[in-house]
Amino acid sequence: MAEITASLVKQLRERTGAGMMECKSALTEAKGDLPEAEVVLRKRGIASAGKKASRTTKQGTVGSYIHAGAQLGVLVELNCESDFVARTDDFQELVRDIAMHIAAADPQFVRKDDVTPAALEKEKDIQSARALNEGKPEKMVDKIVEGRMAKFYEEVCLYEQPFVKDNTVTIDQLIKTKIAKLGENISVSRFARFKVGDAPEAKA
Q1: Does residue 33 have a pLDDT over 70?
Q2: Which residues, 6 or more positions from 192, have their beta carbon under 8 angstroms from its beta carbon?
Q3: For the CA atoms of 88, 93, 99, 101, what is the dihedral angle to 10 degrees?
Q4: S-S: 49 plus which of 6, 97, 98, 179, CB 3.0-4.6 Å?
């Protein structure tokens, strides 16, 4: 099996527009064979989705999910490029799935870039103190913290979270699959999660 190098991952990303983790996973499955890895991504519906990511999304839908018992509810704005796609069953299903996921997983932000500097610094301080308390060498702390931040992003960022109905894919991968199928860029603009007794806070 060929070694999965950063260079190989980069080549596949440039050829398909898929994300780094998707490319690495596909290359692993294809045993380092670049053309075969591209086929793997196409089968998953991820290839070419990344290329559409820069396109403007000004249409879409505001979807909702109310959990049984009506104690928990979610509003989410999912955008696409055309009203036609916004009305399709595939798009509407994605809106419902994402709203239900938000209700279950309680993300705090949409993407990594949306994490506030204050939240980031607080988490880094926590992980740094934790590493030192565990007796890790001080010179290794920064590297350890960097590794643990991936888990933090997975916990608080919608796009990084494993999809509650299928934890083998992230919300980002789920959206990319629909982008590939529908042929338009799709993105979550914002969401709000309401729980009886809690002060609701809109996420953007």
Answers
A1: yes
A2: 74, 75, 76, 200, 201, 202, 203
A3: -150
A4: 179
Contact (Cβ atoms closer than 8 angstroms) between residue 192 and residue 103: no
Six-digit token pair at 79?
């955008």
Provide the pairing of β-strand 162-163 with 166-170.
antiparallel
What are the structure tokens assigned to 13, written together? Answer: 């990303």
Asked whether the beta carbons of 102 and 161 are under 8 A apart, the reply is no
Encode pLDDT of 13-29 as tens digits. Answer: 777 767 778 888 888 88
Q: Are 154 and 162 contacting, i.e. CB atoms less than 8 angstroms apart?
A: yes
Domains defined along the chain, listed by start = 6-48 (1.10.8.10), 52-111+157-203 (3.30.479.20), 116-155 (1.10.286.20)
How far apart CA 103 and CA 33 sit, in angstroms, is 40
Which DSSP category does 50 fall into? G
At 104-127, the pLDDT tens digits run: 999 999 998 898 889 888 988 898
